[in-house]
Amino acid sequence: MTSMQPEIQIIEVGRQALRTAVWRNGGTSRPILFFNGIGANLELMSPLGDMMKGRSDVIVFDMPGIGGSPAARRPYRPSTTGKWANQILDHLGYEDVDVMGVSWGGGAAQQFARDNPERARSLVLLATSAGMLMVPGNLSAIRRMAHPKRYIDPDYMMKNFETLYGDTADASAEDHKSRIQPPTMRGYMYQLMAMAGWTSMHFLPFLKQPTLVMAGDKDHIVPLANARILKTLIPRADLRVVKGGGHLFVVSRARQVIPVIKHFLDDHADDHLKGATCTA
How far apart are CA 272 and CA 76, in angstroms? Predict the structure, then answer.
């Protein structure tokens, strides 16, 4: 598959500028708003943008100090990321969206769905948890996650790939490595701080969106037990376990995982909401 090039622009959201990409895929289904993992620049989600061709536009933005977004002036909270996302969608002319998040971004996606029940029509949570009230991962992997060295030194990431993520360092890992833009230290630390003390446990039973929870059974960072917790607490949740998948299964097993996501989104696309494309 030939990789599609997204439209990239800097969008001002209050006093913060955020580098934003849109993969315009020419489909009639609701667009997807995607929240990325900690320290991850938007290019890392190119496989998702490419594989939604003919179905949905995909919107991704770099968090402050990540990728091409300038660093934030002060720390922020998950609720702030949701406000930024709303302003980006308004700027681009999108209304209703399907919301997706991976790892750190799964927490931001849960918060967005809670704060915007009319805009967030369905929810896809990948390799994520309910925040601080989570079953912890492998200590060695968590220790390495506390510092962005894996992004700053991609060779270090490849050397420790399986220890970090539980995935095999294969061709997809090499492709992942080639897309990395190192985050700033402040940007990475602010992302860590954003989730400090945050949990969705208290509001998960009140989420109204149909929700797909996906988790790898070899995830060293967010163990499978966390997905089971999400499935138990979210009323309309469906759990899919990716056998042999690690923390980056959405990248390493994109051809296996993304069709499952498409099927779920299609099953929960209300007829009157189809065609909610960009009006800008």
Answer: 36
Residue 275 domain-assigned? Answer: no
CATH of the domain at 123: 3.40.50.1820
Beta carbons within 8 Å of 242's beta carbon, 6+ residues apart:
214, 215, 216, 217, 249, 253, 256, 257
Task: Tell me: pLDDT of 22 over 60.
Answer: yes
User: Does residue 278 lie within any of the structural domains?
Assistant: no
User: How confident is the model over 160-200, as pLDDT tens digits?
Assistant: 777 778 777 677 778 888 888 999 999 999 999 999 999 99
Block residue for tokens 């790898």: 216
**How many folded domains does the chain comprise?**
1
> Which residues lie across from 60 on neighbouring strands?
21, 34
Could you tell me if residue 280 is inside a domain? Answer: no
Residue 249 lies in a domain: yes
> Can you give the pLDDT at residue 184?
96
Q: Is 37 exposed, middle or buried (0-12, 13-18, 19+ CB in 10 A)?
A: buried
CA distances to 114, 123, 134, 211, 260 from 238, rounded to whole Å, are 18, 10, 19, 6, 12
The residues assigned a catalytic role are 103
The residue range of the domain holding 53 is 7-270
Q: Residues in the chain, how many?
A: 280
The stretch 7-26 carries a mean pLDDT of 96
What are residue 195's phi and psi, to 5 degrees? Answer: -95, 0
- Residue-wise pLDDT for 85-96, tens only, equals 999 999 999 999
